[in-house]
Design a protein that fits this description.
Layout lengths: L18 E2 L11 E4 L13 H11 L9 E6 L5 H10 L9 E4 H10 L4 E6 L13 E3 L7 E4 L14 H9 L4 E3 L5 E4 L2 E4 L1 H10 L4 E3 L5 H15 L9 E5 L2 H11 L2 E5 L5 H4 L12 H5 L7 E3 L5
Parallel strand pairs: 1-14, 2-3, 2-12, 3-4, 5-6, 5-7, 7-8, 8-11, 12-13, 13-14
Antiparallel strand pairs: 9-10
Amino acid sequence: MTASPVPAGPAQGPAAIPTLAGFREIAPRHDLILCDVWGVLHDGTVGHSAAGEALIRFRGLAPEGRPRRVVLVSNAPRPWPGVQAILDGYGVPREAYDAILTSGDLTRDLVARHPGARVHHLGPERDAPIFEGLDLTLVPAAEAQVVVCTGLFDDTRETADDYRDTLAAFRARAVPMICANPDLVVERDKKLIPCAGLIAAAYAEIGGDVVYAGKPYRPIYEAALAAAGALDGLPAPDPSRVLAVGDALRTDIAGASAFGIASLLVARGIHAEELGVLAEHDRLGDAAAWLARQSVHPDALIERLAW
């Protein structure tokens, strides 16, 4: 069940990365947008209306051979209807997208490969819907055959270090872990909050067997393209006409690069500090110096997703 991180594709020179004034500059080049959710459509407290409007306008472009589609691809550790409910609450219009695919959906598929398994849920109760309807028994940590990590029990005060003893006990019994959210951190109310990926990384460091569901790993991109094709009864779109939009280099940009599709980095997300756009009045300056130190680079940069 071990999965290695997606290797970075060929790096594009940072000097070649354009900064867009608006998404309209590149939208006509693409038939499918694989759009991140957290950090692009909302920040965990507020929805970004301009982002939703940009996706609506993209979907409304006159088609050239096939309709323009948007699939939201999220590392949320819950099935897609839960993400849609959150988006509804933030006022993100359903007209902005055609489908939602989450790491929670892929986690359910992975768990389903172990029918009747004794599973320990390492994560908050709010993520419990990830197990609904599956053939499994939820058990305490000491009885687990598989552990599914969806996050920290209290991500406002805990760190991965708080789980050191728990992880050591799993490792002693060679219990495999499914990480339902490969993100290390996520932005919430202008703060970076730890995610399940930190616990999974800590487990892997001590020799634990970890498989990751979601970005930057290839299966979620394959599933997203297949879902887009199924919307119109067509083959999956040509990767050269697909664009990944996100705010995280490690997941959104690295995953797109490895899969062979173009990417657009949203600056006002988890990399806002590095890119110098923490305050509302800040504007993107020369991001090349920071991007040059990274192992992967987006094809374009935009302050916020907006038309």
